[in-house]
Design a protein that fits this description.
Two copies of one chain form a homodimer.
Chain A: H1 3-9, E1 11-12, E2 19-21, H2 37-50, H3 77-99, E3 112-116, H4 123-132, E4 140-144, H5 149-159, E5 166-171, H6 178-193, E6 202-206, H7 211-215, E7 221-224, H8 238-247, H9 251-264, H10 274-286, E8 292-298, H11 306-318, E9 333-336, H12 348-353, E10 358-365, E11 375-377, E12 380-381, H13 382-399, E13 403-409, H14 414-435, H15 445-468, E14 473-475, H16 476-482, H17 489-501, E15 505-507, E16 515-518
Parallel strand pairs in A: 3-4, 3-5, 5-6, 6-7, 8-9, 8-10, 10-13
Antiparallel strand pairs in A: 1-2, 2-13, 11-12, 14-16, 15-16
Helix pairs in contact in A: 2-14, 3-8, 4-8, 4-11, 9-14, 10-14, 11-14, 16-17
Chain lengths: 523, 523
């Protein structure tokens, strides 16, 4: 509780109003000295990355998401022009939608937007959409971000009454993401069933020449994804900016806020660089090793998807088996959290009393609300209590020897939200340099996809075998044998169990017996 | 991938359709033997708890949430009658609301419900509301679950056009939870500003004789909270059942599903008891110590708040400094997750490649959707892919030596959701017995609240000091001195910084200077 220490360590920038307080975390004297070799190295790597170095060696590509908010920094004039042109086209298209110059198949102006995308094509836009939405939004956004049939039904049922006024934006970098392909196909069928021409209601955001680009040539519009922007840092590309601009959010203010924080994070001295400061404190708190948790607690309802967004940004960037020298390190930093003070009534019991294997990232927002606040008790407003709970938790954590970092934003508005995203992106980039992992690839993600592809193939073999002998009863074991995969009996059983639950085969001996019968008709 | 092992270990119950598969987790031979002393002890404790033992010694109370779905098991006839009477009153009140027999102040039938509550008074109802809501719901629910002024404004703005048709349910066991008190006060002011009588739009759920009960005597209705039901296990009391019944959810089916799973979890043999089985495997995977993470991944959009619900249930129950013998143990089990396959595009990279300090709880739902599914690719439906991603991730985790448990539900309907909650509640109860912590108290939560109370008091002292000398400029340090708390300069600065951002004082030297000036007029 020392004012001297607090005010000496607090990072504050007058232009953005951003403050980062590392005083409630334990870290060694000298950590923030600008002349430490590893600090200088991390800073130099960031500068090289911004100049167009191949920062993702495993995919041999540049990493340029920072150029999205400062196109003049892109390494070639062509890239600068392409970024600017895309921003301009997003504005024009959104204006045409808002004005009714672009309309749906029946001539109705668009009022709703369904965004079909997953992972980086959903988490950023969803977070910002919720953070900055107001009652005066121009359009309402919905998200199809999975291949759950029932989940898709829910979204389409919600927009069904206004389907003729509904625009669908399909986002897939490669065009090969199966969940998004499925969401697109179901969307197309839903429009067609309503007698609407999907192409006149659809926009694609993808890489030029992708499967999606080719299949969607007659759609209303195309916006690019670039190979130098990773999915988890794509919110300031068309991926985020098109849906958000359609919603009515001030994309220019978002970009301005991000650019302003980026500028702060180019300073070489950690005490003056909020992202480098944050990354160094993270490193001290994790010991530079995997296994620690970061609990993100924004004290502001609007920001309640921040931790979900940051889960991908942090865990996919840092969760790596090997470092850049090929050593097995099992790095990672698990992220969770929803919002304060609500979460204090959920798991803060464990944070204060349980294992000391985490640190908290508390997010304070100074501005309470539009308009005045009433006194609700003890001469205090609801916002007075919200701050008191934040400060009280910060203090209780410290009293129990738990670490926290507090980030303060002037308001939950577009510049501050843009700046917060920039701060986290840069902190993750610096941290990855400090612990020597490649923040820009995700090699393990392919494993689950590959296994899923094998399971789809097995299911098709099983269905084909059933179709060859549609009347017979069978066991999972016999069917696995019939498709030449006796070692896959377990998976065949799991496939049949679900097919039976959906009326595509019949389960006879319910449960564990593994006995089934082909349903009548074609499978 | 051994069918023999899988089918031997799989728990399956034909009545409920519930399956629990522990085969993809590493645990020692003999773990499930029914004659292990600690297993028998945990089982006996659960039986004693159900018979009314004082299972929460730190608060000297019984723990009876299981009676809510089997009132005949309550230890006295009076309790049995009270539970049944409350269920009956909930049904009658909801029917009266739905029929229009109970109406708002202007005579309009109620169509919307705002639930004001936090922690256990919000997480369970929210999870189930989202899991079981349909387009045919009778009423729409909104939740005020924080003391964020802007968050409240968002909810009230959404219902404002139909405020005369909006019922508010205030839930607070003690009536003293500050966030809920604030939510209630702002609600009252909002109704009053619209010329509506809040009392004619409000229902209270609280302990008889609480502050809230006394202050709300003229409200439409009262429903009880009981001291033998903890907040995090209150979803099957009026806390959950009143809002959910108003929404149109089949509460009887929820209770039936929970009761059916409870019955399974009274079996002494772990292999036949899905909760004891689960708890024993958890214990093997955590080593019985704090520090492990449980990643909950339901492959079904409707269940995407399950992990938020389970965070409180698990972490508040298990996150304990001391065991029941007073030894310092720092127990806990961190919980996070949203839904699959979406989360595979977020953090599964870290699960597969990063630190091996977690296990996954995969939730499979067999029934895909209402109605038929189209083929979207590779002769497969969207649901085929959803299952393939689940099975693929389970397989990839195993290939990397990571552990998972898979729970399979026949459908995401009321009986299965009720059963899933029961399974988790009982598993947590058994696990707590096994590791010897009290699952039913939360002593550390008071720390943050106490600190917050001190901060509110300090803020009031600061404002009073300013009111005594309203024209003067001052520094945070001088003001801390003036209120006799020079050691609190840091907090005084933080308080003033926020007050300045909200126009209640003026910040002069922005940022770090700590200089402020009293705003004109009263504070």
């Amino acid at each position: 509780m020392s004012w001297e220490k607090y005010s000496r360590l607090l990072f504050y920038d007058e232009g953005t109003g951003l403050a980062v307080d590392p005083s409630q975390a334990a870290w060694p004297e000298g950590l923030l000295r600008p002349d430490r070799a590893e600090t200088r190295h991390a800073w130099q790597e960031m500068m090289n990355l911004e100049k167009g170095a191949i920062a993702n060696p495993s995919e041999q590509r540049m990493v340029g998401h920072y150029w999205l908010r400062a196109p003049e920094l892109a390494p070639t004039a062509a890239l600068t022009a392409e970024i600017r042109e895309t921003l301009s086209r997003i504005d024009k298209f959104a204006a045409a939608v808002h004005s009714g110059a672009v309309r749906g198949g029946r001539g109705a102006p668009f009022r709703r937007v369904v965004v079909v995308g997953i992972g980086g094509s959903s988490l950023g836009p969803r977070f910002v959409s919720r953070a900055l939405g107001t009652g005066a939004d121009k359009m309402r956004l919905y998200f199809v971000d999975n291949t759950d049939p029932d989940g898709m039904d829910r979204v389409w049922a919600a927009v069904k009454p206004e389907l003729a006024e509904t625009l669908t934006v399909v986002i897939s970098k490669s065009g090969g993401t199966v969940e998004t392909r499925n969401g697109m196909e179901e969307a197309r069928l839903f429009y067609e069933a309503a007698g609407l021409d999907f192409a006149r209601h659809a926009v694609r955001i993808t890489q030029r020449g992708s499967k999606l680009d080719a299949a969607a040539a007659d759609w209303l519009e195309f916006f690019p994804m670039w190979d130098w922007v990773g999915g988890r840092t794509s919110v300031f590309s068309a991926v985020g900016l098109l849906p958000l601009t359609l919603q009515g959010i001030d994309a220019a203010a978002l970009l301005r806020g991000a650019a302003a924080v980026d500028a702060l994070t180019r300073r070489p001295a950690p005490a003056e660089n909020p992202a480098l400061l944050t990354a160094l404190v993270w490193q001290a708190l994790t010991g530079g090793r995997g296994g620690t948790q970061m609990v993100i607690l924004p004290y502001k309802d609007r920001l309640d998807l921040l931790a979900q967004y940051a889960q991908q940004l942090v865990m996919e960037s840092l969760g790596k088996e090997k470092d850049r020298d090929g050593r097995v390190v099992h790095q990672g930093l698990a992220v969770f959290g929803n919002k304060g003070s609500s979460d204090q009534h959920s798991y803060v019991q464990q944070l204060l009393a349980g294992p000391d294997n985490f640190f908290a990232l508390l997010i304070e927002v100074l501005r309470d609300r539009e308009g005045e606040s009433p006194v609700v008790g003890e001469n205090s407003t609801s916002g007075d209590y919200l701050q008191a709970f934040l400060l009280g938790t910060r203090r209780a954590l410290r009293a129990r020897g738990r670490n926290s970092i507090t980030v303060t934003l002037p308001a939950a508005d577009a510049p501050s939200v843009g700046g917060l995203i920039a701060l986290l992106e840069r902190a993750v980039g610096y941290y990855a340099s400090l612990v020597n992992v490649n923040a820009y690839d995700q090699p393990a993600v392919e494993m689950g996809k590959k296994s899923a592809g094998e399971i789809i193939a097995l299911k098709n073999d099983v269905l084909a075998a059933l179709n060859r002998q549609p009347e017979r009863s069978f066991t999972a074991a016999a069917l696995a044998e019939a498709v030449g995969r006796p070692e896959e009996t377990e998976t065949v059983f799991q496939l049949l169990r679900r097919l039976a639950a959906n009326g595509r085969v019949e389960g006879i001996g319910r449960g564990l017996s593994g006995e089934f019968r082909a349903a009548g008709g074609s499978l």
